[in-house]
Amino acid sequence: MLPSLGIGRIIKSSIRHVSRKRRGGGGGGVVLFSRSLCVRTGGDNGSDAESTSPPPSTAAADHYDVVISGGGMVGFAMASALGKSARLSDRRVLLLEGGAERVWDLSPDYSNRVCALNPTTQHLFTSLGVWQHILDMRAQPVKRMQVWEACSEAMITFEGDEERPVAHMVENDVTLQALKSLIPSHVQVEYNSRVSGYQLPQDTSSTVTITLQNGRTISTDLLIGADGVRSGVRAAMGVQYLGWEYDQMGIVATLELSEPTDNTVAWQRFLPTGPVALLPLSEDKSSLVWSTTKKTAQHLLSLSDEDFTDALNRAIWDDKPRDARLESLHKGWLRLLETVLPWTNEGVVRQLPPSVTSVIPSSRASFPLGLGHAVHYVAPRVALIGDAAHRIHPLAGQGVNLGFGDVAILLETLEKAVLLGADIGDERMLYEYERGRQRHNMATMTSVEALYRLYTSEAPPLVLLRSLGLSAVNLITPVKERIMSHANG
Amino acid sequence: MTTILRRNLTGMLLGGVHRFWVPASQPHIYNAIILKKEAATYVTRVTPQGESSESTQSSSSSSDDIFNKHSNSDKTERSTYVEEEVAKFRYMSDSWWDINGDCKPLHSLNRLRVSLMREGLVQCGTAKMEYISGPQPLTGLKILDVGSGGGILCEPLARLGAKVVGLDAAEENVNVAQLHAEQDPRVQHNVQYVCGTVEEHAEVTKDQYDAVVASEVLEHVNHPDLFIQTCAQIVKPGGSIFLTTLNKTVGAWVGAVAIAEYALHLLPPGTHDWNKFVPRQELLFILEKNGFVTRMVHGMAYNPLNNEWYWIPNTAINYAVHAIKES
Ligand SMILES: Cc1cc2nc3c(=O)[nH]c(=O)nc-3n(C[C@H](O)[C@H](O)[C@H](O)COP(=O)(O)OP(=O)(O)OC[C@H]3O[C@@H](n4cnc5c(N)ncnc54)[C@H](O)[C@@H]3O)c2cc1C
Ligand SMILES: C[S@@+](CC[C@H](N)C(=O)[O-])C[C@H]1O[C@@H](n2cnc3c(N)ncnc32)[C@H](O)[C@@H]1O
């Protein structure tokens, strides 16, 4: 028996390194070093896998109870949640972020990276004590959302109210700042700490070993992968990842409106090339998320600020050639949005969107859009959260909200594990998180994907619906009914 | 390795009148007999420093009673010990911690029994107020797990902050449990495994426990009344006893023995001698006789298809009891 935790761990890890040495084996892919330790390496893109060399057997691995890989919004929310939990207050938590620490101050200029935080996220942030801090910095409530369609009269609105807004528009930097500044001191955050490889155990009898690019090794009882779309943790888990890139880019920008108004409505218009959304930031500023084909995006990015503003106003205001056959399809299609955005849509009054006077110079940027979903979120001593687990089209503004939902449920699962006296890396516990989250995330993703597919398909309605298959058609009953009567009559 | 003693199904059905054993391999049955002798005179080999030591003399080298060695137990006339029952578990060393192996149902039972114990100790005021909302709600409590086997139940209790003594009649189990505990510092520092029966332990232990638990053990012992009586001696007044067991009814036989052992091969055949199942009424009576007030009796059902346990009102097959020793 060993007197202290530290030495126990050191001996364990050096034994492991010895066995590594003995069995040799470099190369990428999957290498088995011992019965209980299946070593896989994976960095960003999985491309770093080859370069991972075994840690020197003399280097003692630091041990943490939980290591979060990736300090984006979701990683920091997880760190905050773990740090605030009374049940997990005795755990040593480390967050590793590959990027440098940014000194940030709230400036009068708005950032072009903004997310609509939904009420579920607001609830989580309130319980973490960060919501008030966000409001104190800068957040714009969205009391109404109007979604309409370019080629028909179809329109749908989502109504919130003063007490329960539909969402809040918050700059990503503000969210990050609020989370970072309120991280409890016993949670350690390390910047410039890019991970180059993960060794994951086959079961809980051994721990996870993390190798940083600077050669340092760290061991942990639970690795949480919050390292974004090209997750190295996911690559190391070797889980199947279903996904594809859309032939679309998302253009973001900060917009100046023609006159100050209440500006608490989020506007989204669907064009044949994709949706364009104006999201309120302040009385006279809005944030743009314009999803469009890669070709159009390239063109739009090359325009001068003035020409871009004109193109945008046309996209919002222009009448497209109307197709009566499309009308009913579009109405049904818009109803599908309700499965993603669960607010009442009693409002029938069509409001007019604001007109844009200019785009804030150099606020334009573009992002590739895609869909992706990890078949498993967990393995022994590992869990994926946020974009590392799922990626979604921004048309419903749900991406980071799904990630924050992961944080809430993973926290709940870990607290439950503590109360059952289980090892927090026990995959039987983690599996509960996976089961709960996949059910929710898949439902949202399926609806968003159906929305996207239905909309961007160029096939005429009947062909389109047939090709979508029966299950998708069942999702959109109103459309199905119209099509049936259309087909019969 | 796990099916050393293969019971003849006919013998089983005859309800013990014509019980006979078919040894799967001869040497083991002899081992079992030799080990029985050892167990009777055996002295715990685990000291606070974790060094192995063997002695047949009781000594008071340790300040903490729970680490004290057991004295020779020959003077105990009646014993809860049944070698053929304990032998069933001796050779399970490989499988105690295989979560998909023979002990799978015991692992998944933790959800129910750990919750029951934690909530029971919190609600009856035994758990200390200052810890109950924290990371280790059972901090400061001393718990004895009688028949602890590989330590499947001791480990979570230790993680919850309790000082746990795992007592088992089979030295093999004590060894497996000890080795496994060393894998996790949170467990290692809070658990101590001791070889012996509860009578032996009662003789040497000076202190008393906040709670005693015997989970899936009662159906393997002789003289359940002696077992409970001895537990009563070492539970503090106001302390708790937790028991989970299989009920002695036809339902229990069909449900637990036939299905689990034979049809589904979940447990090595012969694990449960259905003659030893203690009926709920009998158990409650024994508890009352020994100064316990029953706080809760609940049925448990196991679904082998998803390996999950559920609380059910029906106590016909498996049940759990929480009783409190009168102050
Ligand atoms: C145009 C656009 C608009 C969007 N609008 C919305 C919206 O309105 N509402 C909404 O909910 N969502 C929206 N999203 C989605 C949202 O931005 C993402 O879901 C969210 O940013 C994901 O956060 P994350 O923390 O999971 O990942 P990321 O933000 O990608 O963070 C991952 C972090 O991990 C770090 N990292 C990666 N690899 C390593 C490594 N090997 N070692 C150490 N660190 C590493 C990275 O440096 C990074 O900081 C939008 C997305 C786009 C593209
Ligand atoms: C079914 S196992 C239960 C193990 C543990 N309680 C659990 O649930 O994980 C029964 C255990 O009781 C032990 N045992 C049987 N009779 C005993 C006795 N008289 N005294 C102490 N232990 C005994 C056996 O050695 C075996 O490990």
UniProtKB/TrEMBL annotation, chain A:
Domain FAD-binding: 64-320, 373-445
InterPro entries recorded: FAD-bd (IPR002938), FAD/NAD-bd_sf (IPR036188), Ubi_Hdrlase_CS (IPR018168), UbiH/COQ6 (IPR010971), UbiH/COQ6_monooxygenase (IPR051205), UbQ_mOase_COQ6 (IPR000689)
Cofactor: FAD
Catalytic reaction equation(s): a 4-hydroxy-3-(all-trans-polyprenyl)benzoate + 2 reduced [2Fe-2S]-[ferredoxin] + O2 + 2 H(+) = a 3,4-dihydroxy-5-(all-trans-polyprenyl)benzoate + 2 oxidized [2Fe-2S]-[ferredoxin] + H2O; a 2-methoxy-6-(all-trans-polyprenyl)phenol + 2 reduced [2Fe-2S]-[ferredoxin] + O2 + 2 H(+) = a 2-methoxy-6-(all-trans-polyprenyl)benzene-1,4-diol + 2 oxidized [2Fe-2S]-[ferredoxin] + H2O
Keyword tags: FAD, Flavoprotein, Membrane, Mitochondrion, Mitochondrion inner membrane, Monooxygenase, Oxidoreductase, Transit peptide, Ubiquinone biosynthesis
Biochemical pathway: Cofactor biosynthesis; ubiquinone biosynthesis
Subcellular location per the Swiss-Prot or TrEMBL entry: Mitochondrion inner membrane
Major place of residence: mitochondrion
SUPFAM superfamilies per UniProt: FAD/NAD(P)-binding domain
Source organism superkingdom: Eukaryota
One Pfam family linked to the record: FAD_binding_3
PANTHER family to which the protein is assigned, alphabetical: UBIQUINONE BIOSYNTHESIS MONOOXYGENASE COQ6, MITOCHONDRIAL
Function summary: FAD-dependent monooxygenase required for two non-consecutive steps during ubiquinone biosynthesis. Required for the C5-ring hydroxylation during ubiquinone biosynthesis by catalyzing the hydroxylation of 4-hydroxy-3-(all-trans-polyprenyl)benzoic acid to 3,4-dihydroxy-5-(all-trans-polyprenyl)benzoic acid. Also acts downstream of coq4, for the C1-hydroxylation during ubiquinone biosynthesis by catalyzing the hydroxylation of 2-methoxy-6-(all-trans-polyprenyl)phenol to 2-methoxy-6-(all-trans-polyprenyl)benzene-1,4-diol.
Record note on quaternary structure: Component of a multi-subunit COQ enzyme complex.
Protein name according to UniProt: Ubiquinone biosynthesis monooxygenase COQ6, mitochondrial
Species the sequence originates in: Petrolisthes manimaculis
Automatic annotation (TrEMBL), chain B:
Cofactor(s) annotated in UniProt: Mg(2+)
InterPro entries assigned to the protein according to its UniProt record, in alphabetical order: SAM-dependent_MTases_sf, UbiG_MeTrfase
Region Disordered: start-end pairs: 46-79
Binding site for Mg(2+): E216, E219, H220
Reactions catalysed: a 3-demethylubiquinol + S-adenosyl-L-methionine = a ubiquinol + S-adenosyl-L-homocysteine + H(+); a 3-demethylubiquinone + S-adenosyl-L-methionine = a ubiquinone + S-adenosyl-L-homocysteine; a 3,4-dihydroxy-5-(all-trans-polyprenyl)benzoate + S-adenosyl-L-methionine = a 4-hydroxy-3-methoxy-5-(all-trans-polyprenyl)benzoate + S-adenosyl-L-homocysteine + H(+)
Basic and acidic residues: compositionally biased ranges: 66-79
Pathway assignment: Cofactor biosynthesis; ubiquinone biosynthesis
Assembly information from the UniProt record: Component of a multi-subunit COQ enzyme complex.
HAMAP family (alphabetical): UbiG
The name this protein goes by in its record: Ubiquinone biosynthesis O-methyltransferase, mitochondrial
